[in-house]
Amino acid sequence: MDSLIAAAGRALAVGDALAALKRVALREDPPALALRGIAMAQLGDYPRARELLRRAARAFGAREAIARARCVVAEAETALAMRDLGGSPRALAEAAAVLAARGDRANAWQAQLIAARRALLLGRVDEAAAVLATLAGTELPPALAAVAALAEAELALRALRTASARAALDRAETAARRAGVAPLLAEAADARAALGRIAARLIRAGHEQPLRLDQVEALLAADMLVVDACRRGWQAGDGWRSLARRPVLFALLRALAEAWPEPAERGELIARVFRTRDPDDSHRSRLRVEIGRLRALLAPSARIEATAGGFVLRPRSGRRVAVLAPPIDGDSASLLALLADGAAWSSSALAQALGASQRSVQRALAELETEGRVRSVGRARAQRWLAPPLLGFTTILLLPAALPAE
Questions:
Q1: Which InterPro entries does the annotation name (predicted)?
Q2: Is this model's pTM higher than 0.90 or not?
Q3: What is the mean pLDDT of residues 82-90?
């Protein structure tokens, strides 16, 4: 390795992309192309970075498997930053295996961390946890230790384990200081700030109260019937039941819970669930059918009793009722939560992360663009979507799989 390549590598290791480019900007040999690609990625020019890394990977010879594998890892990290989540993780896994077999443990660990962060973006928290578990107890270099601790903190936040999240953030900050990488310190500070922001709203007996994440954690640990509008279901004690795929039943349950301990009027239920202020006999019949279905599902946790004017919720075991509402309402709340990370997302990546069809996501984005809440850059396959940050609250509860799965 020549001295300029070594110096550029050292500069990139501490995040000084400009210093690295001064040494290799005019060179076209494979190692220089790879370093230029990493430098461009650090500067935020991801398409150019990807092109350079692919050229470098092609230029390395058949006997330079480690160098090609390093390019694959760097390109995977660039794709992650571009929110290009459509590719197969197989190439990254193969590169990690090559690096581990050839003794380049640091880059092999880096590949594993990229896989874990990709899984988190897609809401595959179990997959992310499994990857991070393989690194537990490993003596990682400081920069990688900071990345691993940040991923552990996000896992803990999505599972509403705030004490574990704080401990992971402490480890992330310590490791980031040892590494001397300012962006990692900033990322840890942002994650810590989320703990103090409003994460949800508590609606109980007609009153609304903002809650931080630790207060949400305490609410869900209490012996109450909590109707959770963040993940669309209800929790009673240790039991959890999802209604994410039954929007009509969830809308009914939320309306009953918000009216509790008073009954919810039939006309109000029809207006909220069927979106009409002029109900006819068919709406009233359908309401009876849907109430019957909800009554059967809810039976272990509560009764639904008919009154003269509507229906009232009666929790079992004397539990109180609360509604946990997201910080922002609307069908596009999860979409805005993903876009709030400041990255430019493609509609296909958003659809993949939300588990929705790309056409549905495109329709929602078009509506949000009309309302001025998102904007697009580029056209056709290069089109990306951006949104301003959502200030004053955290959207962690709106992210895919933000809470333990059923």
A1: WH-like_DNA-bd_sf, WH_DNA-bd_sf
A2: no
A3: 82
